[in-house]
Write a structure and sequence with these properties.
By secondary structure, the protein is an alpha/beta fold. It has 16 helices and twelve strands.
Length: 511
């Protein structure tokens, strides 16, 4: 009877697998066709067709399902065509972009073939391999990493390690017992606001993040940093970390990493480098010298879902000593987990005590693999390494370098053009792929408001979509080029549109 049940079960499984495989192939093909059409970006913006898709999507909770075929049809007809402009090659607003095809394929594969990043599988192996590849590519091969969902969590993990390091030095385990004294993290005024949030989440306090003045180029001032540290030392405040930027969000400025790194090393303070956006800039040999000082870093972050072209939700934290992360973020034991993968118990038994086949590693469930869930804040997490692996396998370091150089050249092209044009003014010279500039004219009263109006009209034309920022108190147009689909003709089109709209606004003002 047991054999009969097993045979029938196998037969049912085979039929089910064949049916589902064929069905999946067919449905993915339809979704793929819809996405191919979407990335032509010939459609209007979703807001312009909002009432049409709202009429189809804004319905009551379904009591009866319509089936997978119908869901796929609605996905292709009403949802995908009304998606985000972020992947549009003309989009240069925030430091985000649409996923490359390699990333999309890898993400899709992982969502089915390995829904979680743990266990002894090829996907778990690629988590570590891809982290190793990135570390080598960015000249931080002495570090080990862990993936997370974005720069917010990546910074949190790094500063969690810094907190552990600093408090352990004074005889306290902050992860187990909490923090027991005032402390400080030093970061420039141009640091990303997730640094302040990390301070709040880690129990250090947002006000413990000490803002350090920057120069006109947006780089941390060394004398201001030293003064802040000395003031806290006199007050008995524990220094936790110095945070430096390898490419600020506003302008792409790179802090003097070498000088800051030496200060951190001399004073025994954890040195963290936020390279969420700008770390890949090290691939451009023309500016590689600006990254000197990474050798002093205790932690570095980068977001592959920015410049590398991964699907959103892929960031990496690298640390000199991953054991600090283990002590900072390890989970307490759970009965349902501890006995599920018996690798550690097998290691303790020794070969002479293993006398049953079941005690040998013969299944992926016999081993959790590298315990990334103890190096960060996520237990459940998708396989992100396969995405980075796929992108690097596709175009290699040379392909990534060519992309970075192309984008940096675009920002420099805008700067050169603006310097030559009577109605454009550069407010921040590009270091990486960001150029901050504005439209000017002697007839304009209130340049900030004028450029704000210009920007909104530009974006609503739905072809070229930069963001704005403030540079030394002045509002700037801020294109940032990180998308794999960015090409030079989009840069030319952006400049032409800005000049055209600026001229039109001036004529409107006269009337």
């Amino acid at each position: 009877m047991v054999e009969s049940f097993a045979r029938k079960s196998d037969e049912r499984k085979m039929k089910t697998d064949i049916a589902e495989t064929g069905h999946l192939r067919s449905l993915l093909s339809k979704v793929g066709e819809s996405l191919d059409q979407f990335v032509k970006f010939e459609h209007p913006d979703a807001f312009q067709t909002k009432q049409q898709w709202l009429n189809k999507l804004d319905i009551s909770l379904p009591q009866k399902g319509i089936g997978l075929e119908a869901v796929t049809e609605e996905l292709c007809m009403s949802v995908i065509p009304n998606g985000s402009p972020v992947g549009n090659p003309g989009f240069s607003s925030f430091i985000t972009t649409g996923a490359t095809t390699a990333s999309t394929l890898a993400t899709t594969a992982a969502s089915i073939a390995s829904p979680q990043r743990y266990l002894g599988t090829a996907f778990n192996f690629l988590e570590e391999l891809s982290l190793q590849w990135m570390a080598e590519m960015f000249d931080i091969a002495h570090m080990k990493g862990v993936y997370s969902s974005g720069g917010s969590v990546a910074n949190l993990i790094a500063l969690g390690g810094a907190r552990q390091y600093a408090f352990e030095k004074v005889g306290c385990d902050p992860a187990a017992d909490g923090v027991d004294r005032a402390s400080s993290i030093y970061a420039s005024k141009e640091c990303h606001h997730t640094i302040q949030r990390s301070g709040g989440v880690l129990g250090i306090g947002r006000r413990a993040i000490k803002p350090i003045e920057c120069d006109q180029q947006g780089r941390m001032k060394i004398d201001a940093l030293l003064a802040a540290i000395e003031k806290d030392q006199q007050a008995g405040i524990l220094p936790i970390a110095i945070v430096a930027n390898a490419g600020t969000t506003n302008t792409g400025a790179i802090d003097p990493l070498l000088e800051i790194g030496k200060i951190a090393n001399d004073k025994g303070i954890w040195f963290h480098v936020d390279g969420a956006y700008g770390l890949p800039g090290i691939l451009d040999e023309r500016i590689k010298s600006l990254y000197q000082g990474l050798q002093y870093a205790d932690s570095v972050i980068v977001d592959p879902h920015k410049w590398l072209g991964a699907s959103v939700g892929v960031a990496a934290t690298f640390v000199r000593d991953r054991d600090y992360l283990l002590r900072a973020f390890t989970q307490e034991p759970a009965d349902y987990l501890e006995g599920s993968a018996s690798q550690s118990e097998i290691d303790q038994l020794g070969a002479d005590q293993i006398d049953t086949p079941s005690a040998k590693i013969e299944h992926s469930l016999d081993d959790f693999g590298i315990p990334y869930f103890d190096y960060g804040v996520e237990l459940s997490a998708p396989c992100r390494g396969v995405v980075v692996w796929a992108m690097l396998k596709e175009i290699g370091v040379e392909g990534m370098r060519a992309r970075v150089i192309r984008h940096n050249d675009m920002a420099q092209y805008i700067s050169d053009f603006a310097h030559q044009h009577p109605n454009l003014e550069v407010l921040s010279e590009p270091t990486l792929s960001i150029c901050c500039f504005r439209y000017i004219d002697s007839s304009i009263k209130g340049l900030d408001l004028f450029n704000q109006r210009l920007h909104r009209r530009l974006v609503r034309e739905n072809q070229f979509m930069p963001s704005t920022t403030k540079v030394n108190g002045k509002l700037a147009l801020r294109p940032c080029f990180v998308g794999a689909r960015h090409e030079q003709f989009q840069v030319d089109g952006l400049l032409e549109s800005i000049i055209k709209i600026g001229s039109e606004l001036i004529q409107e003002m006269k009337h």
